[in-house]
Amino acid sequence: MPLQLHFALFGGGAGFVLKPSEMCTSLTEALDSKNDFWPPPRDSLHRATIQVISLHNLPKRHERRPRHDGRRSECHNFVPELSGEAKPPDNQEPSSPALTLTMHPIGGFCALDTRLPLRQEAEMQLIIPAVMKNGLNAPFNRLVHCVAAEPRATFLRIAVTSGMQEVAYEVGVLARLRCGYRVFQLRSLLGTRIELAYLLVRIETGSEPNHWASWRQQALQLQKFRKSMEEQQERIEAQGQRLENLHAEGATHT
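Structure (tokenized):
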């Protein structure tokens, strides 16, 4: 998992991760603020709708196609056994790939489902059934809606399984998914990209109302509501006092 988080956070990035804007406050502001935890309540959720179209060129059983080129190609020369060695396919039957989509939040609510609005029993994992004996071009044509309160701190992991064994995966930050037709280039369990193995998808983004909140967020919302009620009560009492003073002044003049 640490290796997968590394690829998701720093793959094509600048080598660092910015703090959430709510945490970028001075010490004085943090001490004065009552919002002493992250994440804060959100009125809406980020949504990424992924149409999983097809899987292409999944290696056969015992076949290995590690991709050693790219920006970090020299890394494979130091400890090559960590990247894997190429092996030809065997004569066994083609694989029957299935997909498992899982969301991993650092903070905040997240879930995925096949329909909108999300059901209350929506979970953080969804399994797309296998396509029998077609790892070369497996058509899925399934729609998955991924929602998260903190998309910059939520990871989407897509795993390809054959039988009971996981054979490939890719992981990314939900907020970095771009709209349009895209591909996830799959990795082996060693973390090395697999040559020519892609998952073709179409992505759309939007927002959904947030009907879910943690107990801490609910407590904070209740606290804000009580504070607002107290302020309104103080204003009502102040206005009532002003009215009494005006009546008293009118009575003295008459």
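The chain has a mean pLDDT of 81. Residues 214-254 form one domain.
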